[in-house]
Design goal:
four-stranded antiparallel β-sheet; alpha+beta; dioxygenase; oxidoreductase; 4 helices; Intradiol_dOase_C; 295 residues; globular; five-stranded mixed β-sheet; 9 strands
Length: 295
């Protein structure tokens, strides 16, 4: 069994020395601005991330519960409800975790040439090792809460996550010289950006997740702490079960049942309601994950 990380994501206290300490108050906006908010929050077709079939998942995908995909008949209602909720609620601030590689805890991959890329499956620079696993396309739509949830064009996101064995490049034993599954992208005019990656594994003590930092602009990404938000994407239970039953995820299959979404020390407070990705796909064709990120 894969041993748990000794300092796995322990919450905001772990990051207080390096992370801007600001908590968002949660609340859903009601009233006369509802229609406008919905229009602003629902991602448009332009600039969307490609799914394995080449279609955008950000606006068409249906919210999946933690136990099963939503039924097709509920797609319109659930999609609108989620867009409205996420537009009025800023993404919860979360821990960077012990393996950010943003200069706040050891290496700083953000200063490396080549980190700005859509496909983050391979290492870059001194190595070209490629992380193996089920393909995953992640699309984030950044929304500006202070500007009526307008698209946050020109912002940048640094994303990182573990490999199929639950290990992190640049930190875990044997991976100190690898920097795969880390990358930066700039949001387009619709506030959208996409990463091509692999499905993260599961390790003891955490629900499967993807870390990300939102920066005001690309020019700010090299300075740790100059961030608009630090949070994590929670992956859905049904997708995890399917992926972890496939070849190469044997350790994840053993570890996954040990932590539930509600017992996770990051998502457990609210069940990850504002961080649970909308997901679709298959092991054979790859998966898509989409999330509205209001900052």
């Amino acid at each position: 069994m894969t041993t748990p990380h000794p300092n796995h994501d322990r919450g905001l206290e772990f990051d207080l020395s390096t992370l801007l300490s600001r908590r968002r108050s949660l609340g859903i906006l009601f009233g006369a601005g509802t229609a406008a908010a919905l229009a602003a929050c629902t991602p448009t077709g332009g600039g969307g991330g490609a799914s394995p079939s080449g279609t955008s998942s950000a606006s068409a995908a249906v919210t999946e519960s933690t136990t099963a995909a939503a039924s097709p008949s509920a797609s319109a209602t659930s999609t609108v409800t989620r867009a409205f909720a996420e537009c009025g609620v800023e993404i919860p601030e979360e821990t960077l975790g012990p393996y950010p590689a943003d200069g706040s805890n050891g290496p700083n991959v953000l200063e490396a040439s080549g980190v700005v890329r859509r496909d983050i499956r391979s290492s870059f620079g001194g190595s070209t090792t490629k992380a193996e696993g089920v393909p995953l396309t992640v699309t984030l739509t950044l929304l500006d809460n202070s500007n009526g949830c307008a698209p946050l064009a020109g912002a940048a996101v640094y994303a990182w996550h573990c490999d199929q064995d639950g290990k992190y490049s640049l930190y875990d034993s044997g991976l100190e010289n690898e920097n795969y599954l880390r990358g930066v992208q700039e949001a387009d005019a619709n506030g959208q950006l996409t990463f091509s990656t692999i499905y993260p594994g599961a390790y003891n003590g955490r629900w499967p997740h993807i870390h990300f930092e939102v920066f005001e602009s690309m020019s700010n990404t090299t300075a740790a702490g100059q961030v608009l938000a630090v949070s994590q994407i929670a992956l859905t239970e049904s997708a995890c079960k399917e992926v972890y039953a496939s070849q190469g995820y044997e350790s994840s299959a053993r570890n996954f049942p040990n932590t539930t979404l509600t017992s996770d020390n990051v998502f457990g407070g609210d069940g990850g309601i504002y961080q649970l990705a909308t997901m679709s796909g298959s092991v054979a064709g790859g998966y898509t994950a989409a999330l509205n990120v209001t900052v």
